[in-house]
Amino acid sequence: MARREETEAERLRRIAILNARLPKKRNIAQGLLRNSAGEMLLCELSYKQEWDLPGGVVDPGEPPAATVAREIEEELGIVVEVGGLVAVNWLPPWRGWDDAHLFLFDCGVFGGELDPSRFLAREIADAHWVTATSAADHVAPYTARMLDAVEGWTAGSTLYLENSEPTGR
């Protein structure tokens, strides 16, 4: 018996049903931005206690690398060149949030001056250049573990992390 070809309308209806039923996972894209002294940029956020790397939630239909560039420009008023993918980090549920994927990108070295008057005040209270050692004093535990895991990162490689820990995969 010959299989009936499905119409484009039928195919789109089937996909719409699957899209409505399949799980959705939050994606986060952040950038590792350093200054000439080797310090990394952390943002003091207006809506939570912990500082965090610059970036944000990926909008539907938006590539994670574009998210990093957009968020840094919108929130800090600077334009960065997004480089390679440093790590993909699966984060388990935390403080009421569902699990998520975090994409960490290399944003290179920023040689300019940060201008707090350009910060998006509803999100960024301040921004700080910190050493890798002092970052753990300000960030969430999962961010501190992730920063430890990527400490020896080399360009051209990508780490896979689960709950900010290397898996050996």
From TrEMBL:
Its cofactor is Mg(2+). Keywords: Hydrolase, Magnesium. SUPFAM superfamilies: Nudix (SSF55811). The keyword Transport does not apply. It holds the Pfam family NUDIX. GO terms for molecular function: hydrolase activity. Belongs to the Nudix hydrolase family. This is NUDIX hydrolase.
